[in-house]
Amino acid sequence: TMKNPVPQAASLLLEKLMLLVHVRPLLTGSGGETLPPAPGYYDTSCFKRGDLLEVPRTLFIHFGIYLGENRVAHLMPDILPSLTADRRHIQQVVTNKRLILGVLARTASVRVDTVEDFAYGGSILVNHMDRLFEDQDRVRGNEEGARRAEKLVGGTAYSLLWNNCEHFVTYCRYGAAVSLQTDKFCETVKMIIRDQRSVLASVLVGLASIVCLGLAPSTTLPTIFIPFLLWMAG
């Protein structure tokens, strides 16, 4: 018998809503401000320009493209680019408040940070996603990937499911914007909808997606409420 997927779905939804916003670890100084690791914390001699860098966290993965000279291009939700054009302020290390407000406002920027600021103490995997693409011809040359990343630096729209840091790096390196984390989330939602015992939970997931994540262009409100109507009719 299939286990009731409601607890699993609820847990996954909370993970996506609260933790996949790239909230940084709580590394604080005496003033309570978040502090990055000291320069030189990472050995960048093994990184090549155009490498896809992957930083696993407890419940999500953050991605970036290495540009050389200790610089990483990565997409981060950030409210500040929609409020000011002052590059000096925007380039400062993104705070958790800016991150969360950026997610809610669905705004972000592709920014260039040091490896230390990008990884924030996490371990770094290099080109780890290459193994997931059977057609190795899809892997662009490192220089082409780096140039694509550089062209995209600046403000952009953000969606936790449809335009996140993983979409950015896969477009740069593989030529197709995909997110395996998004695929996992959507498959769980589909599993809930298929299970009639979980129709109400699917409606709640759909409503939460509308409010917090935004809808994919092909998604419509009737699609979200069909399971609910069937549940009411039953």
UniProtKB/TrEMBL annotation:
<dbReference type="InterPro" id="IPR007053">
    <property type="entry name" value="LRAT_dom"/>
</dbReference>
<keyword id="KW-0732">Signal</keyword>
<protein>
    <submittedName>
        <fullName>LRAT acyltransferase</fullName>
    </submittedName>
</protein>
<dbReference type="Pfam" id="PF04970">
    <property type="entry name" value="LRAT"/>
</dbReference>
<keyword id="KW-0472">Membrane</keyword>
<dbReference type="GO" id="GO:0006776">
    <property type="term" value="P:vitamin A metabolic process"/>
</dbReference>
<feature type="active site" description="Acyl-thioester intermediate">
    <location>
        <position position="165"/>
    </location>
</feature>
<dbReference type="GO" id="GO:0042572">
    <property type="term" value="P:retinol metabolic process"/>
</dbReference>
<dbReference type="GO" id="GO:0047173">
    <property type="term" value="F:phosphatidylcholine-retinol O-acyltransferase activity"/>
</dbReference>
<keyword id="KW-1133">Transmembrane helix</keyword>
<feature type="domain" description="LRAT">
    <location>
        <begin position="52"/>
        <end position="181"/>
    </location>
</feature>
<dbReference type="GO" id="GO:0005791">
    <property type="term" value="C:rough endoplasmic reticulum"/>
</dbReference>
<feature type="signal peptide">
    <location>
        <begin position="1"/>
        <end position="28"/>
    </location>
</feature>
<keyword id="KW-0012">Acyltransferase</keyword>
<keyword id="KW-0808">Transferase</keyword>
<feature type="transmembrane region" description="Helical">
    <location>
        <begin position="199"/>
        <end position="232"/>
    </location>
</feature>
<dbReference type="InterPro" id="IPR042288">
    <property type="entry name" value="LRAT"/>
</dbReference>
<keyword id="KW-0812">Transmembrane</keyword>
